[in-house]
Amino acid sequence: MGERAGPGDGAVANRAWWDERVPIHLASDYYDLDEFLAEPDVLRAFETAEVGDVNGARLLHLQCHIGLDTLSWAHRGATVTGLDFSGPAVDAAEALAAELALPARFVTADVYDAADVLAGETFDIVYTGIGALNWLPDVERWAGVVARLLAPGGFLYLAEIHPVQDVLDDESGSTFDLDYFDIGPIIWEEEGSYADPDAETDANVTVEYHHTLGSVVSAVAGAGLCLEFLHEHDCVPTQRFDTLVRGDDNLYRFPAGTPRVPLLYSLRASKP
C-alpha cells in the first residue's frame, strides 16, 4: 500500500506517469497490438451486452488512453471521440485509427475540461472504461461534466473496478486490510507498469483516489441522470489478487467453490 497523500491535486504527476508509459504499453504483451490490429475489439462481453447496439451512435470515451476501447466501439459502428489528458496517448490512438482505417477523433484534454473543450457538443453515449475513476479527485464534478456532454435521451455507461478491492489484502483478496470509508488519496511510488512490471521508468509517482460505490451512484444521480441499472461482477481483467484464476474469456475470478466479492461493477444512467 502507498502513503496517504495530502490535499494537493495529483494531475501533474499522474500525467507524467501516463505519458512515459505510452511506448511501454504499445510494446507490451498486455495490450498485444498485433492481435488488436488483426481484430480490433477488446471490449468485455458484459459491456457490449449492457450498452447494446451502437451502430450510428455518437459515442464519447472519456480517459481513453491509447484508444483500444474507443476503436473497438468504432469497429462496432459507433461514431467515436476519445479524450485523454496524455498527449502521447492521443497521438498513439490517432496512429492506430489511421492504421486500422477506422474513423475516429481523439482530443487531448483533462476530463474536467471536456465539455468546454468540445464546445457544447453532445453525445448519445458517454463511456468510461475500467481503471479511470481512481485517477480523479472529484467524482461529483466528473458526473456534472458527463451530464453536460450527454444529449437528451443519451446515457452514461461506466464499467469500473469495484472499490471493495481497495480494502482487501493483495495476496488472497479475502481479508479486510483498510477502512472502506476512509482511504486516501494515496501516493504510490513504483517503477514499471501494470502492462510491464519490469520496464525501466523515471516518472514513478502517482496519486490515486478511492470512491465508494455509494459516492459514485450518488454523484451520477446528483447530476440529474436516471440510474437504469447497477451490476456487480465477479471478474476482473488483471490478476489483482494472487489467488485469482484466469478463465477462457481472459478474465480473472476467484477459484470455484471459494467465497467471492465483487471485482467490477457497471452502471448505466440516462439523461431525461
From TrEMBL:
Segment forming the signal sequence: none
SUPFAM superfamilies for this protein: S-adenosyl-L-methionine-dependent methyltransferases
Keywords: Methyltransferase, Transferase
Record-linked Pfam families: Methyltransf_12
Taxonomic superkingdom: Bacteria
GO biological process: methylation
ATP-binding as UniProt keyword: no
Gene Ontology molecular function: any one: methyltransferase activity
InterPro entries to which the protein is assigned, alphabetical: Methyltransf_12 (IPR013217), SAM-dependent_MTases_sf (IPR029063)
Name this protein carries in UniProt: SAM-dependent methyltransferase
Organism: Pseudofrankia asymbiotica
